[in-house]
Design a protein that fits this description.
The protein is mainly alpha-helical. It folds into 2 domains: 31-62 and 335-421, no CATH class; 74-298, no CATH class. The chain has helices spanning 74-123, 131-164, 168-195, 203-231, 236-249, 254-270, 275-297, 303-342, 348-355, 357-369, 373-394, 399-421. The longest helix is centred in the N-terminal third of the chain and has 50 residues, at 74-123.
Length: 422
């Protein structure tokens, strides 16, 4: 059983005292799960020698200050802003598309939206984010960021347009849109990181939230472009097909990649748990998204050549980065669960089952065959959350709070393990 009191060799914050903190072999399996020796501590021992709950399996009550409750106030605030934004966004769309164009554009936009959201679910499969926060990210992108863009663009144009020395059309496409749109989308990321930091604590989370925000933004923007192809054309079928091919087939991930760079950089900053660094990461991280966005909008007559030589390699690089992040995430999850196994909470075979793709697949197949698939799914997710909780403890972030959460995670694991075994 764990307690919130310091163990021998630790100070009052749960950190190793002077002379402690030697890292065991493989304690740092990847850069994503890196731990400084000063913060390292052994996993709490299962002193009973059996898999007994340390506490009743209830959700932890976290009292670690702003944002520690998982952003419970962020979601209603986001929906309120989205609702207010609709009074600006909907009339704008309907004026430019008409009702028929809006309906057709809405339906057509669901296809690229589905492609991006399925990708988000795939990336987020290892340690899923809370659905309410993902919904917040989507409505921020689809409504709030659109409204912010509409409100800021006239002022930005008035201030920066004359300074740029560009004609208005070129300025609007290559400077104004990238700067204002990426800033508006990234404000959603900043809100998530400041007010729901327990669920935004690494680069994978940053990419997931950024892709979701960008999916929402692109969805609304596609309604405009597809709807205008219907409303403003003498040959709406052909024009819609062309626009859909350019936006829905060739570039459904364009906005996701732009904003994803900001999410990636802010995710690395989130590992430090420092609000000042988070704001700095926001300022720094939005720059590459603006540059990528501007580069995309700047493609002119040689669009196909630039698309193949520049944009396709950028997309492939993004795929490689995401794959790299997922591998790193699995490796440090396995290592953290191994540390709990050494403390008596799992067997070595169970760690392989809980922390490898093949092990999880086989475990779910077996559990479904005996009617315990739901319990096994819950166990797999709980084990992953336990590994991430331990990572936060070893990173020195609000250690007493996460030690309390660790107790409840272990209790949850014990109860779920008993339900699976039967």
């Amino acid at each position: 059983m764990t307690t919130n009191e310091p163990r021998p060799g630790q100070d009052q914050h749960g950190r190793p005292s002077s002379g402690q903190g030697q890292l065991p072999q493989q304690a740092n399996p990847t850069w994503l799960g890196h731990v400084e020796p000063v913060y390292y501590q052994q996993a709490p021992a299962n002193n009973s020698g059996r898999f007994q709950p340390a506490l009743p399996p209830a959700a932890p009550t976290v009292t670690g200050g702003r944002g520690s409750a998982g952003g419970s106030g962020l979601v209603p605030a986001g929906f309120f802003l989205a609702f207010m934004s609709l009074f600006l966004v909907l009339p704008f769309l309907l004026e430019r598309t008409g009702i028929a164009g809006f309906v057709v554009g809405f339906i057509a936009s669901l296809i690229p939206l589905g492609t991006v959201l399925l990708t988000v679910l795939f990336i987020d499969r290892w340690e899923p984010e809370p659905r309410p926060l993902l919904l917040f990210a989507f409505v921020w992108g689809a409504a709030v960021s659109i409204a912010v863009t509409m409100l800021l663009q006239p002022y930005f144009s008035l201030v920066a347009g004359p300074v740029s020395g560009l004609d208005y059309a070129t300025f609007a496409v290559t400077v104004q849109a990238p700067v204002v749109e990426e800033f508006a989308k990234s404000l959603g990321l900043l809100s998530l990181l400041l007010f729901a930091p327990r669920h935004f604590d690494g680069p994978v989370d940053g990419v997931v939230f950024a892709f979701t925000i960008a999916a929402g933004f692109a969805f609304t923007e596609n309604i405009l472009y597809f709807g205008r192809a219907i409303a403003e054309s003498s040959d709406p079928g052909t024009d819609l097909a062309v626009v859909f091919f350019l936006r829905g087939v060739m570039s459904p991930f364009a906005h996701a990649i732009f904003t994803g760079t900001t999410g990636l950089i802010m995710g690395f900053a989130a590992r430090r748990g420092n609000d000042g660094l988070v704001v700095l990461a926001f300022v720094v991280g939005v720059v590459p998204s603006m540059v990528l966005h501007s580069g995309w909008n700047s493609m002119g007559q040689d669009f196909l050549g630039q698309y193949l030589l520049v944009q396709v390699p950028i997309f492939l690089l993004a795929v490689l980065v995401i794959a790299w992040l997922r591998v790193a995430e699995r490796r440090f999850t396995r290592q953290r669960l191994r540390e709990y196994a050494a403390a008596g909470w799992f067997t070595v075979a169970e760690v392989d089952m809980l922390a490898t793709t093949g092990g999880r697949r086989n475990a779910l197949r077996w559990a479904k065959s005996v009617g315990r698939g739901a319990q096994m799914k819950a166990l797999l997710r709980a084990a992953t959350r336990l590994a991430f909780t331990r990572q936060r403890i070893l990173s020195g972030r609000d250690v007493p709070t996460y030690q309390l959460e660790e107790q409840h995670r272990l209790a949850e694991i014990a109860a779920l393990r008993a339900a699976v075994v039967g």
